[in-house]
Design goal:
This protein is mainly alpha-helical. The chain has nine helices and two strands; from the N terminus they run H-H-H-H-E-E-H-H-H-H-H. A hairpin with a 2-residue loop joins strand 1 and strand 2.
């Protein structure tokens, strides 16, 4: 199935949700810049939004260009695997929206104030997102398959190279996200939270670099991820 052979109904709907999430990022950035400008104490809010921006944009590119059979299957019924893929796509974008809305600011009437910075929201939902990525891999590469592979039993599809050639990347990044959540979810020191945000950016870019088989970028992001995680742990009192 070619890149052009896609279900416009499903893609159009999910594209709209991506656009809404991107618009919310723009609103949050405008609020932070307008109210705090170059205030260093607001740095965690800026890095939260940087992470959200990179997460959403890289996901958009990866989703749009994915050639997985299930990502190209026509949606002709709500009682179909393709509809489940749509639900997963929608849930993923909702997760992105939650991360965007988790910026460390609070609206009190017309006033926007800073709150205590935290890495809990970003690390928790990053872990959830990688779990959903793995579910998406299973649905689009093992449940929905080309006609010539439908004779295979499900258990054989679940251990097939077509799935695990790339799904292993998702598992590795999920384990890293889980470790980050476990070790850094209680961080409230501003610089530690900033370090965790940068580590999460590195994790997302590592995921995409491994997917695109870019050894140079994968190595660079691995080093940045390790360095920022260590820095966050050392900076947290």
């Amino acid at each position: 199935m070619t890149l052009e052979a896609r279900d416009e109904l499903r893609f159009g709907f999910v594209e709209m949700l991506f656009a809404l999430t991107a618009a919310e990022i723009a609103v949050q950035v405008a609020d932070v810049v307008k109210n705090f400008e170059a205030d260093l104490a607001a740095l965690p809010a800026y890095t939260h939004l940087m992470f959200a921006t990179i997460l959403v944009t890289t996901s958009w590119v990866g989703w749009l260009k994915s050639k997985a059979p299930g990502n190209r299957a026509p949606l002709d019924s709500v009682f179909s695997a393709a509809f489940i893929v749509l639900l997963v796509d929608v849930f993923l974008v909702i997760c992105y929206f939650i991360i965007v809305r988790g910026v460390d600011i609070q609206r009190i009437g017309d006033t926007i104030v800073r709150v205590v910075p935290s890495s809990a929201n970003e690390t928790r939902w990053s872990m959830v997102i990688f779990c959903v990525y793995f579910l998406w891999d299973i649905l689009t590469k093992a449940v929905i398959v080309p006609a010539d592979e439908r004779s295979k039993k499900m258990w054989r599809r679940l251990i097939d190279k077509n799935l695990w050639d790339r799904a292993w990347i998702t598992i590795v990044c999920l384990l890293i996200a889980f470790a980050l959540w476990l070790e850094t979810r209680t961080f409230t020191n501003a610089l530690s939270v900033v370090a965790v945000d940068i580590a999460l950016v590195a994790l997302v870019l590592l995921f995409r670099a491994l997917k695109e088989k870019s050894a140079k970028w994968a190595s660079a992001m691995s080093l940045l991820l390790i360095a920022m995680t260590i820095a966050g742990l050392k900076l947290q009192p």
